[in-house]
Amino acid sequence: MTTPFGGSGRPAPGLPNLPTPPTGWPVGSYATYEEAQRAVDHLADSDFPVRDVTIVGVDLMLVERIVGRLTWGRVLASGAASGAWFGLFVGLLLSLFSTAGDSLVRILVALAGGVVFGLAFAAAQYWGTRGRRDFTSASQMVAGRYDVLCQPRNAEKARELLAKLAMGTTAGF
């Protein structure tokens, strides 16, 4: 079983089943996730018990980046394209499980039907907004900073290793 976010659906051994706040002492704070990930990777490369480490995004915000302007042409082209893919899929399924007749005709009819329905649904959806959202965008959740926490039993060792990383005195960095 998998989850929509790529996990196995089962928590790792030792992790709680329900969402809980993270625990541990702060051992580092970073402006970007990449920097926090690099810090934890450094700990792992130093044979540190990384099961005691957690990266926590603090000051979460939803960032919506505008990709482009939405026009009738783009809406209809996008609707036709997505309808065509769905129609092609349906046509291939019909031809795969059908015993009689020309498979190419089934595929082409389903493809054309998909294009028509894709156009219709996209047009109806765009018309329904009445110009209130004439742009396309991509959203992502980001944090203002990323804190690395460590369980108290190993926090001092983690701070020492991360201080060496920050000073650039470690091999390979």
UniProtKB/TrEMBL annotation:
<dbReference type="InterPro" id="IPR025889">
    <property type="entry name" value="GSP17M-like_dom"/>
</dbReference>
<keyword id="KW-0472">Membrane</keyword>
<dbReference type="Pfam" id="PF11181">
    <property type="entry name" value="YflT"/>
</dbReference>
<keyword id="KW-1133">Transmembrane helix</keyword>
<keyword id="KW-0812">Transmembrane</keyword>
<feature type="domain" description="General stress protein 17M-like">
    <location>
        <begin position="27"/>
        <end position="111"/>
    </location>
</feature>
<feature type="transmembrane region" description="Helical">
    <location>
        <begin position="75"/>
        <end position="97"/>
    </location>
</feature>
<feature type="region of interest" description="Disordered">
    <location>
        <begin position="1"/>
        <end position="22"/>
    </location>
</feature>
<feature type="compositionally biased region" description="Pro residues">
    <location>
        <begin position="13"/>
        <end position="22"/>
    </location>
</feature>
<feature type="transmembrane region" description="Helical">
    <location>
        <begin position="103"/>
        <end position="124"/>
    </location>
</feature>
<protein>
    <recommendedName>
        <fullName>General stress protein 17M-like domain-containing protein</fullName>
    </recommendedName>
</protein>
